[in-house]
Amino acid sequence: MIVKTVVMLSLFLAPLILMITGNITTPWMLFTAYIICGIGMSGIGMGVMHDAIHGSYSKNKKVNKLLGYSFNLIGANASVWRIQHNVLHHTYTNINEADDDLNAPFFLRFSPHAKHYWLHQFQHLYIWFFYGISTLSWITTKDFVRLQRYKNLGFFSKKFEYRNILTGMILWKLCYYSYALVLPIIVVPLPWWIILLGFLSMHFVTGLMVSIVFQIAHIMPANNFPLPDSGGAMKADWYGHQFATTSNFSPKSRILTWFIGGLNYQVEHHVLPDVCHVHYRRLAKIVSTTAREFGMPYHVKEDLFRAILDHIKMLHKLGRKPSAQLIQLKTNEIK
């Protein structure tokens, strides 16, 4: 974990240091540097911050808190993520309107229970652009929108808590934009619009990588999208719910596992979120055996390519009219 942390932080920070010290002078050098930054940002988000905010990076809470701020370093906000991911996503996985990962703009539909619009039939084609700009949206507006919504939902019991998080968020984002965009515009001897394009390319790389990894773990044909019962409770027990709504992919790829912070073992992560991801590969055999023993589903795709194809199929299915989906569901039940 220490080696990975040093590598990912270096991939993000080193190219920026080269920019603001005047060592980047040509467009190809600029775009190469920003794309490397994007890879580093992805690695920080998936392989460092993710464990730290879950409290699984270290047994020392102070270390986890410190490394959780690496999320702020790349323009996002650790406090908002903790509610969105640790609380809402991990508690209400794939439950429409409760799992915040399913809440999307009207032109995207991630749940069969979400409202359907005619343009959803094309979402499997245009979604890749929106995956690419997802982190750009994240660092500009999404964090503020979610913070306000979480306040309205009652997550901040103390009056000063919301104010402190909002103030910190603004300051962190100002710092991020300063060293990731403003200083390069000032220092790098290239037109401002080329530097802006480089900055956007960095986020497109990060957004595409992170979105694909997280989405193919849950928005899949084999995964369930349950609804709570009339009393608002989940119908299955918590572990059964996690097994039914989560999917693994590429379990044999050690390189991918290392780079994406073990998020290809999403089942293990969801049933053992307080365990560091370096243990997932060895835990997978135990978890899968236990799932079979108790009659739980254990979804897994052998490689990344097949997982992406299944995700595309699911997006296409979700884009069809609900009546067509219902007919298909009944056909499957008859078969």
Defining traits:
disordered C terminus, mainly alpha, 335 residues, 15 helices
Sheet with the most strands: spatial strand order: 1-2
Taking the alpha carbons of the first and last residues, their distance comes to 47 Å
Tell me the number of structural domains: 1
Helix fraction bin: 55-70%
Radius of gyration: 21 Å
Per the principal axes of the C-alpha atoms, what is the gross shape?
A: globular
Low-confidence stretches: 329-335
> Which structural class is indicated by helix and strand composition?
mainly alpha
Beta-strand percentage range: under 5%
- Total number of strands: 2
Helical segment count: 15
String of helices and strands: HHHHHHHHHHEHHHEHH
Major sheet summary line: 2 strands, parallel
Mean pLDDT: 93
